[in-house]
Every structure is written in C-alpha cells, then in structure tokens.
Design goal:
2 copies of one chain form a homodimer.
Chain A lengths: L10 H19 L9 E5 L5 H9 L4 E6 L2 H14 L5 E5 L12 E7 L8 H9 L2 E11 L6 E3 L3 H16 L10 H7 L3 E13 L3 H17 L2 H6 L5 H13 L6 E12 L9
Parallel strand pairs in A: 1-2, 1-4, 2-3, 4-5
Antiparallel strand pairs in A: 5-8, 6-8, 7-8
Helix pairs in contact in A: 1-2, 1-7, 5-9
C-alpha cells in the first residue's frame, strides 16, 4: 500500500483498474451477493472499481469503503456518485491494519487485490478478523502473475512478467499470492475456508476478452511498471520493446492468453469471540 | 506415438491414466455427449480410460476406437469389457494418420491426450478432417504442463516439470500444446471453433482432488520420466529427490496445486466436401 503500490497511481493505472472491473466483474463477483441490510467493509477500495460492483450487485447493503490513499478515495467517491448515484457509501481514509471500527461491527469483509501489496498478508487477515461478527464472512480476490501463459510462447514476454513480480517483491508484496489464498485464510484462523480459481482465457473467438483482458488489463498491467523498471536498471528499453511486441501477438488472431484469479471465502464461527 | 510415447508403457502409467480419467472424467467429459446412433471415432484410445467414459456417457453410439499400440488396444478392450460390458466398440489397430475408413464416415471424432505426442499436430488434424461428415464435429482435449503452479513454490519441482516438457519435445511432441488447441483447429480448416480451459485446483479442503489429481495424476506423470531422464543424463537422482519432495508438499495441508486442461470443439461446415 502507500507509495510502494507497484502499479503506480497514474491515470493509465486508473483506467486499467476500471477496464479490469468492467471486463472481469461477472467473473470476479459471481457468487458474491450480500443480504440487504448487511454491513459490509470494502477493504482497500482503491479507485472504487469493485465498490461500484458491490453496491450495484448487493442492493440495500450498508457499505463502508476504506483506503489509505486520499487521492484514490476521492476517485472512488466520484466514480460511485457517477455510476451508482443512489448508493449509500461511508468513506474512510485509513490504514487497514489500524481501523477504528468496533469488534464484530461488520457482517462481511470484501478484500480484493489488496493482500498482494502487503508484506505480512497473514497478519493482516488476523488483524481484520476482529471486525467481523460471529457467523460473518470474509471474501478475498487476488491475481497470480505466475498463472499467465500464452501462445505464441515468448521468453522476451516472460522477462517482463517476471519484472513485475520482482518489483512487487521489492515493494514488499507478492504478485504470486493467488495460489495461497486458501492457506492464508486458514492460517489466519478463519473457518470453512473455500477457494477456487477464476480463470480468464481469451482467443480470437472471444474478442471482448482479448481486448478487455489481454490488452487492456494484462498488457496494461505489465506496461505500468515499464518506466520504473528502466529507471531502476532492471530491464532495458529494448527488452520492453521485444516483450510487449510478443505479448501483443498473443492478442492477435492465432494467439491465446490464460490467467487465473483466485477467490476465497472464510467465516467467523457462530459464537466465536469476535476479537478471536 | 509408438515407442517415443513419453510417459512409457508401464503398469504405473496405466494406473495413472486410469486414475486421471476417474478423477477428471466429469471435468473433461462435461459437455461431450453424442446422440444415440452417432458413429464416433475415438482417436488414439490408448488403454481405454476415456473410451469407457465415451460409451457410458453417450449410450447407443457406434464407437470405433483406434490405437497404434497393440498392447494398449488389448488393455482398452479388457477395460471396456470389465467396466462397460454391454458397450459395442469396434477396435482398430492402426496409425491415425493412415486410417482405412471412408471419407465422411463418422459423425464425430474424439481426440484426447493425443496431439501432444505428434510432431505435426496441425497436419494430423487436417488429415483427420476427411473422416468427418459435413455438420460433424471434432473434440480435442489436451493438457499444458506450463499451466502447473503450486504452493509452496519450488525451483526444484519446476526443474522436474521442465524435464518432462523437454523429454516430450525430444520425442517430437509438445507438452505445452493445450494453450494452442484453438489456433490449431482453426488453421486445420475446422469451422466454429470454440476452446475453453478445464481447470483443476486442489487444496486440503478438496482431499479427493489432492489425492486423485495432485498425487495420482500430476506427480505420477512427472515420476513417469524419472528413470529415463536419469539414464539420459538430463537430471540427477538428487534433483529427483528434492523435486518430488517439494511437489509432495503441494499435496500436504497448507499446499495448493493448479493445472489447466484445454478442450476445443470444431465443426465441418454443412455442405462441405468431406475430403476438404
């Protein structure tokens, strides 16, 4: 979180997150619908791409959206005002590891694309647990850059994907966190943990996904670290030219692209002490 | 095919294929049900693991099962006799690139875990096309060893997976073929091609898949090339010890495993000349 957020707080990044949500919304939010009246905490809402989906997908919830970036929070407010003007959202600027809400004061927590940026995701999940009432749930969604593979294969493209993973690690995060959401939730003390892959596969017969995912989500995500990686001496402009050219081939006719997000749900047992 | 079949014709391999089919049958055969009376060609039936599913999943079809290995074909016959005794299967020993059947004499072709072993899969698909009547279909199923990722991560385990991919390439095949089934079918002249991933994800909350897939399918598949890779000097016994130990950690509580098969269907246009 904060200034180490690996993708950067740029307009391009804002658009990428928006495109991602619009393309992947059905995939990522499938199965997530909260009961009317439920008090839900949207942890690390960023620019609000998922927040809009939460309020439109679960009408009547009381949503509290938290982020550590004042600028992101302002963008999220504007987005919700524009796209879901009737939604009631309480906005909170703050660190998810130090939130002022009372124990057990939420029915559900929603944590999407947040843990990948944290140096201690398991500890964060433990810290968040106290906020959920007995019987309430937490939902995690994370990507895993190690799940990306494509045709035609290309070492030059892989070099760029590895660069993004390396930068995430240098910033204290884990770009390969998706594969371990189940063990993370279980080790943090949640019950009834279930995890499953949400796979995106795109080829020329699926032009919406080629454009919305391969190009505007994945390649855009890799592109978001280009300048930083060159400035840090991790990759050369020539490596970027070759790698992006090859990734774009996967979005052309005859190319294919595969990526997996992971989603997991855990529960606080009925009758548990909320501060666990 | 033939003696270069990378997994080897061993009892362990036969059991692996059986376990794979029993565990993955619902996943791989979902959506494949042929109309009663349809004449279906089971191309490269091997030891019959999928053949049993074809005759039980599509009652009343006329199935012709072909393989190039006499020994595999004998095992397939015995398996069908034991597991689907009422099924009518016509068995044929022969090379899928040189089959004696008339043009357009099949309604559907089913080709599962076969193309990965062929040096020219696109040419094979073109050759097979003439066998299908106008309006008939071909179904492909292939794995992709590049889709395997797991927790805890391990370079030692990856070294073994790469070994299997290398051996497959040395034998003229492509262990990473799953990602390109759609372009292969399209380039071979099939119409209305659709492809999709069939993802297996296993963690401790899914003990059936941990045992049936992670251990008895994937790790068994990697193990199947141990002796050959050591004999060829590609990997050392110590590398095998470390790599298999790490893969087994992915099957223990706290571990996770992900693998993707790809399935694709193509069609011969109505009114097309069957020999295209």
């Amino acid at each position: 979180m904060g200034t180490d957020y690996v993708h950067g707080y740029t307009a391009a990044e804002t658009r990428r997150l928006t495109d991602q949500a619009r393309t992947l919304a059905d995939l990522l939010h499938a199965g997530t619908q909260y009961e009317a009246g439920a008090r839900v905490l949207d942890v690390g809402c960023g620019v609000g791409a998922q927040t809009v989906r939460l309020v439109t997908g679960s009408p009547g919830i009381e949503l509290v959206s938290v982020d550590i970036s004042e600028d992101s929070l302002a963008q999220a407010k504007a987005r919700v005002a524009a796209e879901a003007p009737n939604a009631q959202v309480e906005w909170h600027l703050g660190d998810l590891l130090d939130l002022p809400f009372e124990d057990g004061s939420f029915d559900h927590l929603f944590v999407c694309f947040v843990l990948e940026h944290l140096p201690e995701p398991q500890q964060a999940l433990k810290t968040l647990r106290r906020l959920i009432r007995p019987g309430g749930t937490i939902t995690l969604i994370e990507g895993d850059y190690g799940s990306a593979f494509f045709h035609p294969r290309s070492d030059a493209a892989q070099v760029l994907i590895d660069c993004l993973t390396d930068l995430q690690a240098l910033a204290g995060g884990d770009a390969l966190i998706g594969r371990r959401v189940q063990p993370l939730l279980a080790a943090a003390g949640y019950a009834d943990v279930r995890a499953w892959p949400c796979t995106v596969y795109a080829d020329e017969t699926l032009p919406h996904l080629v454009d919305g995912f391969t190009r505007k989500t994945f390649i855009a995500m890799v592109e978001s670290v280009r300048e930083r990686s060159i400035a840090a001496g991790l990759r050369t402009p020539e490596q970027w030219r070759e790698g992006i050219r090859d990734l774009e081939r996967a979005a052309e006719p005859g190319g294919t692209f595969h990526y997996t997000f992971f989603k997991a749900v855990g529960r606080i047992p009925d009758g548990a002490e909320p501060c666990g």
